[in-house]
Amino acid sequence: MTDARPASVPPPPGRLRRAWQSDFLWSFRRAPVAMVSFLVVTVLVLAAVFAPLVAPHDPFNPATLNLMNGFTPPGQPNAFTGESFWLGTDDQGRDVFSTILYGMRISLFVGFSAVLLAMVLGVLLGLLAGYLGGWTETVIMRVADVQLTFPAILVAMLIFGIAKGITPPEYRDQMAIWVLILAIGLSDWVQFARVVRGATLVEKNKEYVQAARLVGRSPFAIMTRHILPNVLNPVLVIATISLALAIIAEATLSFLGVGAPPTKPSLGTLIRIGQEFMFSGEWWILFFPALTLLALALSINLLGDWLRDALNPRLR
Amino acid sequence: MLAYVIRRVAQSVLVLFVVGLVAFAMFRFVGDPVDNMLGQERTQADIERLRETLGLDQPFPVQYWRFLGQAAQGNFGLSYRQGRPVADILMERLPATLELAFVSGLLALVGGIALGIFTAIRRRGAAANAIMTLSLIGVSLPTFLIGILLIYLFSVELGWLPSFGRGEVTGLGGWWTTGFLTQSGLKALILPAITLGLYQMTLIMRLVRTEMLEVLRTDYIRFARARGLRDRAINFHHALKNTLVPVITITGLQLGSIIAFAIITETVFQWPGVGLLFINAIQFVDIPVMAAYLMLISVMFVGINLIVDLLYFAIDPRLRVDRTAGRGT
User: Fold this and answer.
1) How far is Cα B275 from Cα B289, in angstroms, rounded to an integer?
2) Under 8 Å CB-to-CB from B298, ≥6 apart: which residues?
3) Residues A174, A168: contact at Cβ < 8 Å?
4) Bridge-partner residues for B177, per DSSP?
5) Distance (Å, rounded) from C-alpha A3 to C-alpha B242?
């Protein structure tokens, strides 16, 4: 076929080209704020994922640490060793830039995993509540109501506290990351469940669902194969905004000392450590992790804001 | 109306019942309190004696029953960490948190409504735009970073205000202590109150602004203008009144989250309230304190939600049809 086409007719646009011209990307190209935010998020995520390659030092390998390097101001050579660090060093001579990269890794890992957990749980329960109705719906939505009475961060703290009580003391530091994911994930599923339930209630009366039911598909297949794809847009928006909230929640918990342990510091733990040196003038130990957290949270928030508008057909 | 009230009260009691169950489950299944209270050097006799004193040798239903009875009387036993009655510790710390929450709530409400009206009326002004942009950053800024930033500015750099503690407090009527009466107490209150109130203030501001813009577009406002009423009368008398219904709901619900977010602010400023107590309890797995705090804060939340719902219902005649109103996030 392609061989028979006259040379003067341009080939049909490829997949990439069509994607580039889609509505979605069109609105992306028209939103400078979204593009900048996307760029910031991409750079930060890549830097975190490839932290072992990007970081100039391995901050958690005691063999490479030199206590003499402690409290080196950013950009200046150390008074004793003459070594110079881009963003300075902390009290133990760890390179602040490297600890931020590794810390961001933990923050992002916890954030993504927690949102994934909340999303899977919330979407599943929301679908069940919306599609099955009856007492399933009553139980799920009542639990959601009770949980909504309390702010998510409080629920997360409580789950963290209980989980900490259950794990034996010698495993607490190792388990802290997983407990954090569980705590933040379980504190955040309600949003997803409510939205998915609402959308499912609308979708389940449409003709395509009735048709699927007529041909005898199982309720599970109808929920996951037919209804789910149609309620995914709002889920995506909530997931983006939840990611920013989850990263902030993780940082807050770690800052309060009920999150990532000092042996595996996340951005929040680094800020907690840095705060101690604020009064003695070593501002960089606090300032750079805080700035990174802010940049991460703000750009994900802005991206989520844009996504909400871009995916909302009424606003086009 | 009566049916609605009864249903709401029943719902609230149910929530409290569920929370009570969680609190009891924490007591019963998390960690071994005897382990937590006794040091490294202990004998089997010590352990047995303590188990008996704490009632841990009793069967499960008996413990549950005793827990409910004691909790209803405000008795949550001894703190594992401090060895003192939890109720006493909580009562000691409560005034600090309530004063902080009150001042930041007031700040959020007054500041939020004022800025909301301003940004709605001067919608296209440069100042209003600047405020809106700042509020967006304010929403993304985690509470603890705001606190650190304020400490850095006003305590470390300028040295105007204290960075931690409550200052000098005065005892009032036996158990209440207040920081309102001394200069150092008032100074110590400023930074924590701003930290805690800022987020709620931006929320209220954005809400008032949206509602005001909506109301200002309606026909009766246009009619009031046509009648030649002054802008002042229109904005404050006609428009503001009609924006206040959702503001009251959200503010009421936010009051609950102010008490919860006080945990963060209290930790940043080492403010000796119940929030700091709760965080320390989590760090040391002090279950009685955690459970008692949970119960205390649930009673507050559920009470506030109930009052707000009923208030909402009372001030807006349109809602006196059968529906469950005002359940926000």
Assistant:
1) 11
2) A149, A150, B15, B16, B19
3) no
4) B171
5) 71
The residue type of A266 is S
Backbone phi and psi for residue A78, each to the nearest 5 degrees, phi listed first: -70, 145
Token code pair at residue B223: 């009619």
pTM of the full structure:
0.80
- Smallest Cβ distance to B264: which of A149, A252, A286? A252
| All structural domains of chain B | 2-72 (no CATH), 92-320 (1.10.3720.10)
Most confident of A253-267, B68-82, B299-313: A253-267
The whole-angstrom distance between B45's CA and the closest CA on chain A is 24
CB contact under 8 A, B327 and A148: yes
Distance CA B156, CA B150 (A): 9
Q: At what angle do helices A96-132 and A232-255 cross, to 10 degrees?
A: 140
Give yes or no for A40 touching B (CB within 8 A). no
Question: Which helix (DSSP H) or strand (DSSP E) does residue A191 occupy?
Answer: helix A189-203
- Asked if B329 lies within 8 A of A286 by C-beta distance, the reply is no
Q: What one-letter code names the amino acid at B220?
A: Y
Using CB atoms, which residue from B26, B256, B257 is nearest to A162? B26
Report the alpha-carbon distance of residue B286 to residue B33 in Å, rounded. Answer: 8
* CA A32 – CA A44 distance, rounded (Å): 18
pLDDT of residue A68: 66
Segment 101-160 of chain A within 8 Å of chain B by CB = 145-146, 148-151, 153-154, 157-158, 160
Alpha-carbon Rg for chain A in angstroms: 24
CA A126 from chain centre, in angstroms, equals: 21
Contacts of A252 in chain B (CB under 8 A): 142-144, 264
Q: Which helix (H) or strand (E) holds B171?
A: strand B170-172
Rounded Cα gap, residues B208 and B217, in angstroms: 14
Q: Please tell me the distance from the alpha carbon of residue B4 to that of residue A111, in angstroms, as a whole number.
A: 40
| Tokens, residue B87 | 């109720």
Domains of chain A: 87-315 (1.10.3720.10)
When CB atoms are compared, the residue of B15, B256, B264 closest to A146 is: B15
* Residue B318 CB burial class (10 angstroms; 0-12, 13-18, ≥19): exposed
Torsions phi, psi for B171 (to 5 deg): -80, 140
Q: How confident is the model over A37-65, as pLDDT tens digits?
A: 889 889 988 888 887 887 777 777 766 66
Residue B176 backbone dihedrals phi, psi, to 5 degrees: -85, 135
Give the mutation candidate from B32, B285, B293 for the A interface (greatest A CB count, under 10 A).
Answer: B285
Among A36-50, B33-47, B239-253, name the one with the lowest average pLDDT: B33-47
